[in-house]
Prior knowledge:
This protein is about 75% helix and about 0% strand. The chain is mostly helical and about 150 residues long.
Amino acid sequence: xxxxxxxxxxxxxxxxxxxxxxxxxxxxxxxxxxxxxxxxxxxxxxxxxxxxxxxxxxxxxxxxxxxxxxxxxxxxxxxxxxxxxxxxxxxxxxxxxxxxxxxxxxxxxxxxxxxxxxxxxxxxxxxxxxxxxxxxxxxxxxxxxxxxxxx
Length: 151
């Protein structure tokens, strides 16, 4: 089994925390306490700062982050299950606000999280949407990456 990085663990815990918030409407502190109590080993290994940042920033504009994908959808946002909405919102948060993380990393992490938490084959759906958003919000980076990979 491949060892997961502290940043990957932070993203995974952020997904769990945001899901908990959406179901229970509790505070971020309560979410983090719950995550710590129920995933103590993972919580210790995770990058706490990134986890906290992703929970806080994603919840700050959850609807806006999810709505960014509307131009690429052939169905309404409401038809996407909550877990997939959360993964999309976290990816949008990172693409827009966390420019020190390369777009291809954000895309890959979203795909891996969809494989872990999403419905069967939802990772393909997530991959397509996050890639399209990255092409819009990080156009220069994505064009540069594409030319590098074509060589």
